[in-house]
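During the practical work, I worked with a single protein chain and the C-alpha cells that describe its fold, as given directly below.
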Amino acid sequence: MDTILGLIDDIYEAAAHPEHWPAALKNLADSTGSIDATMGGQTAAQVPLLVTVRTDPVMVRSYAEHYHRRNAMQLALHTTPVGRPVVDAMVVDAESFRASEFYNEWCVPQNYLHGAALNLATSQGWRATLMVSGRNEYDQDALKLFGAVTPHLIRAFQLNQVLHETRSLGMGAFAALEYLDRGALLVGANGIIRTANGMADLIMAAGDGLTLKDGRLSCADPRETAQLSRLIAQTVRGMVSRDEGILQISRSEGRSPLSVQCLPFPTSNWWPGFTQQLAMIFVTDPDARMEQTVERMRQRYGLTPAEARLAWEIVRGGGRKSAADKRGISVATARSQLTSIFDKTGVRRQSELVRLLLDD
C-alpha cells in the first residue's frame, strides 16, 4: 500500500508540474520490477514525443525513426481501450513477436524482454501511452499495481492537458494586448506585477511618472504611489467600478500625465476562500498616442517632420505662438509651416487641424 501511495503522490506531482514526469516514471519502473517506464504521444506511424528515464537517447531516436512502425505491441494498443492495462502476452503472439526485427534488434540489446502498457487517452488517431519494460514477465501482482495507479495516471494526463490549455489561453489573450497602443499589466493582491505587455515595459523603463520598484508599481510622487496602491487593493477586492478606477500620474514638466485605469480581472472560484485575486491595469500615455497619430498623419498627408511636430504642439494646446516657443522657432516660421500644413491636409483653421488629428 505504501508503494502505491508513493506512486500516486509522484503522479499528481507530475500532474501539477509536467517536468516531474521522469521522477514519477522512474518510481513506476522500480515499483513494477521494470528497467524503464516510458510515456509517449504517438500514432501508428509516428512518435514525436517520448518521455523516458533510463533508455539510451540513441535507442530512443532509433525507435522513433525506425522501430516504432515495426512494434507489434504498439500496433495492438491501437485497439486497446483507454484505461485497460495489458501485458505483451495479452495482445501479441509471443512466438512471432520474438522473431521480429523490433524485438531482436531493439528490445534484446536493452534486456527489454517483456512489457506492459496502458493507453491514457486517444484523439483522432493519436494515443497517449505509458509502457513499462523489463527482463521478467509481469505477474499478477505487477499488473494489479499497474491497475491500481491507472485512474491516477489518466487523471494526471488530463490535468496536464487542462494546465497546458489554460496557460496557452492566458498567454494568447495577453499576447493580444501587445497590439494595444497602451500599457497593460496584471497585478496580484500583494501589488506584485505578474506580467506586462511591451508598451507597459517601455513606459516603466522611461522612468517618468511610473516605475517598477521591488516588483511593484511606484510613482514619482509618493502621494500618488499611495493612491495607486489603495486603488489596486480595492480593485482586486472588487470594490472599484469601471468608471471609478482611474488615476492620473504626473510626469516631468511639459509632459502630459499618464492615465491609469484599474479593472478587476475575472477569475473563477473552484474552492471557497481560494479565489485568485488580480487586477488588470491599463496605462495610457497621451503624448505617445498623439505622437503615433501625428506620425500616421505625416505619412498620410506628406508632412515634413518639422510640420508634424508643430501640428502636435498645436493639438496639445496654447495656439501658434505657444507651439513656436515650445519648438524653439520664430512665430514667422511657425506661420509658414502652418500654412503648408493647411495646404497638405485641406483644412483652413487650427481648430479644424485639431479635430482632424483627434478624429484620426
User: Anything to note?
Assistant: The chain has three domains: 2-172, 180-284, 289-359. Residues 41 and 49 are 5 Å apart (CA to CA). DSSP finds 15 helices and twelve strands in the chain.
